[in-house]
Every structure is written in structure tokens, then in C-alpha cells.
Amino acid sequence: MFPTVRVSFSGCRAEARYAVLLDVVPVDGKRYRYAYHRSSWLVAGKADPPAPARLYPHPDSPFSGDQLRKQVVSFEKVKLTNNEMDKNGQIVLNSMHRYQPRIHLVKVREGGGPITDLSREQHRTFIFPETVFTAVTAYQNQLITKLKIDSNPFAKGFRDSSRLTDFDR
């Protein structure tokens, strides 16, 4: 996922163990389209049925409270897909729909297994309204395409210099 979601925590108990998870939920029940002549997103109808929600545990979880106070937790390895048959643990989204990432801080229970149901866990959920985004399979703006190719480590195949124009070089 680009840009990457990064979070910092404070107020955690130093000796406690915490899992940090991410999920991405629909913002509304609408589908969107991009209007080039207006450079804006317009409602294009009712949303497709959402894919089953997936919790993505940070690969370094669990953390001690002390670790969480001293470092930034980055979800740079999260991958998004529109393939509902995905078996690789990627987060499945519908293209041209709006989504909100959420961060969950879960206090790990002694002997607890994988976290699959937050309602059974002692947790806090953090939502940052500025992270709402529209999922796309192709960027609707060439400047955004260039920004992603230049900045996203997963787009290195697109930086092949033989594909660049004289201006881009």
C-alpha cells in the first residue's frame, strides 16, 4: 500500500505485550468514477458487495509496550489486491470504492493464538480521517503515476530507464 501507514504509540504499559493490526474498511456504500474534465471523483452508483474483511497483523507483532514507545510501526509490507480469490493474506478491495485504514492495538492474552475477532480482545482502534482513499487499479492522474513509480519500492520495475521519455530522464 502506498503511501505507507506508519504509527507511533504512547501510554502503553512497558511490560505488557501488544499486537498491532491493520484493516481497511469501506467508507460508504458508493462506487466512484473519475471525471477528467473536472479533476474530481463523482458518485457512479451503488457499491459492489464488499470482500470479507481481513485483519493484517504487523509481521513483528507482538511488541512490548516499551518497544512501541520507542519506535514507529510501519505497515510497508501490506499489499492490496482486487482478487477476491487471494490466498496470500493481502487485503482485498473493490476498485473505484472509498476506504478507511484502521489501526488496532490489541493487548495480547497469555497463551493467546492468532487474533481473528477483535470483539473478543482488549483493544483500541485508531482511525485517521486523512487516510481515506479511493482504490484504483490504474491511476487516474499521470502525476500520481509518476509519484508512485518514483517513490514506491514495489514499483521498481516501472523505473526501467528504457521506458522513460527524454523529458523524464
From TrEMBL:
InterPro entries: p53-like_TF_DNA-bd_sf (IPR008967), T-box_DNA-bd (IPR046360), T-box_sf (IPR036960), TF_T-box (IPR001699). GO terms for molecular function: DNA-binding transcription factor activity, RNA polymerase II-specific; RNA polymerase II cis-regulatory region sequence-specific DNA binding. Pfam families: T-box (PF00907). It comes from the Eukaryota. It is found in: Nucleus. GO terms for biological process: cell fate specification; heart development; positive regulation of DNA-templated transcription. The keyword Transcription applies. One of its GO terms (cellular component) is nucleus. Its main location: nucleus. Residues 1-160 form the T-box domain. The keyword Transcription regulation applies. Keywords: DNA-binding, Nucleus, Transcription, Transcription regulation. PANTHER family: T-BOX PROTEIN-RELATED, T-BOX TRANSCRIPTION FACTOR TBX20. This is T-box domain-containing protein. The lineage of its organism: Eukaryota, Metazoa, Ecdysozoa, Arthropoda, Hexapoda.
